[in-house]
Structure prediction request, 189 residues.
Amino acid sequence: MFRAKRRTVVSVAAVAAVLLAAALAVSLTQGSSKATDPGYILFPAGQQPSAPDFTATSLTGSPIKFASYRGRVVVVNFWGSWCNPCRSEAPTLAVLSEQYRSHGVAFLGVDVGDTPANALAFTRSVGITYPSVNDPAYVVTQAFSQAVPITSTPTTLVVGPSGHVVGYIYGGVTYSALSTLISDATVTR
Prediction:
């Protein structure tokens, strides 16, 4: 009986710690929105969480190591071909990825809860040329959720050259919001 109570107390404490961490992250970022989008969060310098390193398989079957992006600004978009807001934002992401390629900004998609075939067909249909990793079991998503709360798709993060998350957009991106966030990441902070 004592062990069962102890397990319950430990479980409740763990859940409370996670909720407290999420509330702290939200309170630290409140008021830091620079764009007009309500889902735009910019982390202050010195409070930017580290992006996790991971290796995953691309939609075409190649391994992708996130560590290979170190030293560059990286836009990481969590999406699914089944997600209507993801479908709506895809053309904007395709345009921005082409626009910022010459500036050394990389784009990487994280396709969640999808099959590689469906996801690949979708990226081709909307003109997305940057790679996406397949994350059907949400492993990459959970790793990033340790740094930034990723609770739905789409969510788009911008990681600075140091490997820290500069900010993110939850919900569909707009051209102006993502351009501003990329510009913030390219400024030495």
Q: What stands out?
A: Residues 4-37 have pLDDT under 50 and may be disordered. The CA atoms of residues 30 and 41 lie 8 Å apart. The longest strand covers residues 106-112.
